[in-house]
Hints:
By secondary structure, the protein is of the alpha/beta class. It has helices at residues 3-12, 22-26, 70-84, 114-128; strands at 58-63, 87-92, 105-108, 130-133.
Amino acid sequence: xxxxxxxxxxxxxxxxxxxxxxxxxxxxxxxxxxxxxxxxxxxxxxxxxxxxxxxxxxxxxxxxxxxxxxxxxxxxxxxxxxxxxxxxxxxxxxxxxxxxxxxxxxxxxxxxxxxxxxxxxxxxxxxxxxxxxx
Length: 134
């Protein structure tokens, strides 16, 4: 990411959180919200943009449970990324890490067993060429 992108993320980090929309979305439906519930949508092509700079160094941040001090961690991670000129990739083992709302790149780790989650995380680490996971 560029310095402008990290500066924009830092400017979006505020303590106020979004309202929960799950009750509105699931009202009158039998399916439970979460990883197995998706609303039907049309396919949307993503804009042509590179996923990562060729010279980028990526740092992974593993999230295994909801974080109580999310705002502080997000601000510190964005400042770290800006200062060290690195890409931050959040490896989320939970449905919603919270970093999504600030604009961080979040990769959801899937799998029902610890072995499956470890394999998924390893695949994502290889894709992003992540050598360090915090």
